[in-house]
Design goal:
Belongs to the SLC35F solute transporter family. InterPro entries: EmrE-like, SLC35_F1/F2/F6, SLC35F_Transporter. One of its GO terms (cellular component) is membrane. Keywords: Membrane, Transmembrane, Transmembrane helix, Transport. The chain has one domain. It contains 15 helices and no strands. Helix 2 crosses helix 12, helix 8 crosses helix 11 and helix 12 runs antiparallel to helix 13. The relative contact order is 0.19.
Length: 339
């Protein structure tokens, strides 16, 4: 396979990354499928669908953190800003399911790739080869095709307002790029348990406030039967597992492996839409998917040794700044991008 050499495949971390990546892909597909089903039932409470997941993260990782009693390695308000962006990104993508199809939502997530490229280049000083930039360009073409296919397909695209839904997903993907870049920075320079504890804590608090202001009427209107409760429980468990595994994957294999893994979730989304929803998929979706897949393959091409060594030096400098300059300018500029 082009993405990995034979020697790399023998490495334990690569094999673990492939397994973890596919678990994340399946979890992402399950969350999207369940969220889409809730939207079909008229349940319009986006923030509440993430609340239990954050609460579970806070309970489990917060308990571990209290037991360990570690020294906090990063400023709490950095985690707060990161979590605020996370909550609003989840809100936007769940809201998008009310307007566009599940396939469009999952394919348009690829917009996060060029956003990550820009963010890491500006704030983390990461350099990219012409090959990676070419892959990003091809990926953007695929994203444009998805939007155009929704306009072309009209009422067959599986949503009441596909263009509005597509724009919401693009906005969410941009925020996810900020989140993923920040999380990779923290798991490599701070502490994974600390990150998950604060994300869960602040996520639950922010979600609770947002629910009390905007979603009380929507929650009161829901008929809380087994069919409505079980999807919420399933999403909560999936969100907990998704973030738990994601932080491990980001630390051991980086964002490239995570991005590649999510590509397979797009394939699952198309299959679910065809066989479970019995919907007709516009032919441009297949062309968009192929274009996006080619772009992702180019983007995740193996880096040469010089690029990998330079990346290691960047991480070393980030860790040094975090240890020696609490509240240093690098973290402020990185997290400040989310405000």
């Amino acid at each position: 396979m082009v993405l990995f050499s034979f020697n790399e495949m023998k490495k334990k971390e690569t094999l673990i990354g492939l397994v973890l990546g596919q678990i994340i892909s399946l979890l992402s597909t399950f969350i999207s499928f369940t969220t889409s089903e809730l939207a079909r039932k008229g349940i319009n409470a986006p923030t509440s669908q993430s609340f239990l997941g954050y609460l579970l993260l806070a309970t489990v990782y917060g308990s571990i953190m209290l037991y360990r009693r570690p020294v906090i390695k990063a400023k709490w308000y950095h985690y707060f800003l990161l979590t605020l962006v996370n909550v609003e990104a989840n809100f936007l993508v769940v809201k998008a399911f009310q307007y566009t199809s599940m396939t469009s939502v999952m394919l348009l997530d690829c917009w996060a790739i060029p956003c990550v490229l820009v963010l890491t280049w500006v704030f983390l000083k990461t350099r990219y080869s012409l090959m990676k930039i070419s892959g990003v360009a091809v990926c953007i073409v695929g994203v444009v095709m998805v939007v155009f296919s929704d306009v072309h397909a009209g009422d067959r695209s599986g949503g009441s307002n596909p263009v509005k839904g597509d724009l919401l997903v693009i906005a969410a993907a941009t925020l996810y790029a900020v989140i993923n870049t920040s999380e990779e920075f923290f798991v490599k320079t701070a502490d994974r348990i600390e990150l998950m504890s604060f994300v869960g804590l602040f996520g639950a608090i922010i979600s609770a406030i947002q629910i009390s202001i905007f979603e009380r009427d929507a929650l009161n209107a829901i008929h809380w039967s087994t069919g409505a409760v079980l999807p919420y429980i399933g999403i909560a468990i999936s969100v907990f597992l998704f973030y738990s595994i994601l932080t491990v994957l980001l630390k051991t294999n980086g964002t490239a492996m995570f991005t590649l893994s999510l590509l397979t979730s797009d394939m699952w989304a198309v299959l679910i839409r065809i066989f479970a929803y019995r919907e007709k998929v516009d032919w441009l979706y297949y062309l968009a998917f192929a274009t996006t897949a080619i772009g992702l393959i180019i983007y995740t091409m193996k880096e040469n040794d010089q690029e990998r060594q330079r990346g290691g030096e960047v991480v070393h400098e980030q860790r040094k700044l975090l240890d020696e300059e609490s509240g240093g300018s690098l973290r402020d500029s990185l997290i400040g991008a989310s405000t």
